[in-house]
């Protein structure tokens, strides 16, 4: 059972539509009682870092998530700001992140992006850096939708599984043990995104 | 590599989809949900839906319709029409819409841009600016489907919006709307250099060549079009269409490596 965390931040519907279409069992998790049959977790996120962290804290699900992810080792994927929340901190905000993966969130340096605006908005190619079950049956250079001005930077480079390029090569997919993070939006990336969400569901 | 976005823009009028010419003569072209399903199948880069009645009728956005569109839409969705408050914007965002477009409200109350950005993030705040050529050079900004001329200075407005935290600026040419003879390249040329956020242009595309001309000249830019993606042939038969990825690659082929940071 895939649990999509609904803490008031992120496009829950987009994920539930895709899992419905894939015929994979999922539920929307709004409080700790909903977790009882959950075996995998999707942590969406949009907007600002501090707003997302505060909303998660206020949802009352934070401690339960720590327990399920860090002790019970349930597979989890943080998406967009949900990925950034996995870090220890972000240049965008003052609050601490979840700290589940050793890294920090940085802002793109506008001066290094020639002719390119910020946010980084649109379809870009994912460079797969490391084999991983989550990439099963994806195209060789799959294209995904991005919409962000900040990016995750790992302290342990072995956690990096995919990168993309915008002004510089940045880490857009990370994995450490049971924990995954993806900066782009698989829920809005047509067939490649659906395949990736399917793979996560079948991990 | 990051590629320019090619975006169908759909207009909603009396709950149906329409296409206008110079913001007039709305012609019925179909059902919104059906159109979204077709663009899903065609894997369009994004979708922009503008309710052209809401502001004019001074009514709330049609939340039920927006929810239906958002839950059907498998690509990023931008909705505009009738949004005047942060609460309305947040509500629409929570229905599963990635980008919130405002137009007349941003002109009447520019601070709204900042306030919405605080709630949903700058990346999701879009301002659509409807412009029309002045008789003797320059451009006027209009609201209410091109019926109300404002006194806004376009250049200053564009600069101010970016200070206020806008995430994307859409410039819509009233003169070229529905004409299908190409974008107003002079208009874009005039303002592209002062726009540091993603810029999208709308109004005039009649063929994929028009989009190619835009990309060849300006590189990474949002290319939005209405008529091009709902009509086919010289008699303008209604047929929803969108280029395949292989066709899009041809449009992108003159983007030089390095120039757009690939």
Structure description:
The complex is a heterodimer of chains A (203) and B (262). With 203 residues, chain A is of the alpha/beta class. Chain A has one domain (2-202): Rossmann fold (3-Layer(aba) Sandwich). Chain A is 24% helix and 31% strand. Chain A has helices spanning 12-22, 49-59, 62-71, 81-84, 190-202, and strands at residues 2-5, 26-29, 40-43, 76-79, 89-90, 103-107, 120-125, 127-128, 143-148, 150-154, 160-166, 168-176, 179-182. The model of chain A has no long low-confidence stretch (mean pLDDT 95). With 262 residues, chain B is an alpha/beta fold. Chain B has a single domain, classed as Aldolase class I (TIM Barrel), CATH 3.20.20. Chain B has helices at 32-41, 63-72, 86-94, 104-108, 111-120, 154-164, 185-192, 208-218, 227-230, 245-252; strands at residues 5-13, 16-21, 24-30, 47-51, 77-80, 99-102, 125-133, 139-143, 148-149, 168-173, 199-202, 222-225, 231-232, 237-238. In chain B, the strands form two sheets. In chain B, strands 1-4-5-6-7-10-11-12 form an eight-stranded parallel beta barrel, surrounded by five helices. In chain B, strands 13-14 form a two-stranded antiparallel ribbon. In chain B, strand 11, helix 8 and strand 12 form a beta-alpha-beta unit. In chain B, helix 3 runs parallel beside helix 5. The longest helix of chain B has 11 residues, at 154-164. The relative contact order of chain B is 0.16.
Quickly list its features.
heterodimer; A: 203 residues; alpha/beta; Rossmann fold; eight-stranded mixed beta sheet; three-stranded mixed beta sheet; 5 helices; B: 262 residues; TIM Barrel; eight-stranded parallel barrel; two-stranded antiparallel ribbon; 10 helices; disordered C terminus
